[in-house]
Amino acid sequence: MSAATLTAAPAAPTAKQADKIALENNKLHKRLCRLVGQAIGDFNMIEEGDKVMVCLSGGKDSYALLDILMTLRERAPIHFDIVAVNLDQKQPNFPADILPTYLSNLGVAFHIENQDTYSIVKRLIPEGKTTCSLCSRLRRGILYRVADELGATKIALGHHRDDILETFFLNMFFGGKLKSMPAKLQSDDGRHIVIRPMAYVKEADSERYAEVKGFPIIPCDLCGSQENLQRKQIKNLMREWDKKFPGRVDSIFSALSNVAPSHLLDRELFSFTDIKADGVANPLGDIAFDEEPCAMPATFPGTIPLQAV
Ligand code: SF4
After folding, report:
1. Which parts of the sequence bind [4Fe-4S] cluster (predicted)?
2. 132 among the known binding-site residues?
């Protein structure tokens, strides 16, 4: 086989195939707008007069977040402003011109914050040790300050559904906590509201959207830090489940917004000590001895083969 055969370019799509691709891309855009809009509504993330600071790392998810928020702003019944912010941490080979060029062409207000956290981290953390925790702490403090300086009322991050699920499993497997990544929170300094409008978006959709839109992605390994291995394992586990048992990951995600504190063991969440038998029958009440049927959530899009559970 000749080299020419090996490197032959794929055939251009026919008109019919091109129409189909355009239709799929349009559906993807609509789906992202719907899911981001839904999360914003469910958690009251953006209100009239807000100035939303979108943190842009140069990764696919933050580009998608900015893009979708700009679309939604055009359609929203309320007025809000957007300012995109990138923190240039002075990592070696960071392509500093990509984001300013992209954002200028997009016509969105933006700010690039130059802070050499890379050198600080390298100086303080011994070679071979994980640098992420100090790096994120420094980044967080800088972004809070920038939000103050820009008068931003909300700080938007690009974490998606799979980040939320991975964090949930990380906390459960390694931290002994039933806890994930909040869709909306008050910052630890008590001064900011942080929102995650992509909370309902699947990573695969964000990935596909980045391809479709041709976002100029900046690689996230410039700092030379190793990827978090535990998170990587969990990501792989979820991908495997998704392939083998379609619907399982969706079901777990639904479970995060369908919690029964009385059926867990956290005495802070539910007052077990105050339970009394009041003699009043309740047909919807708890069944003590029978095993409860495992009802599928209303939004559950697939079924899990029981023999495989
Ligand atoms: S991967 Fe690098 S840039 Fe990202 S948090 Fe870790 S040390 Fe910082």
Report:
1. 132, 135, 223
2. yes
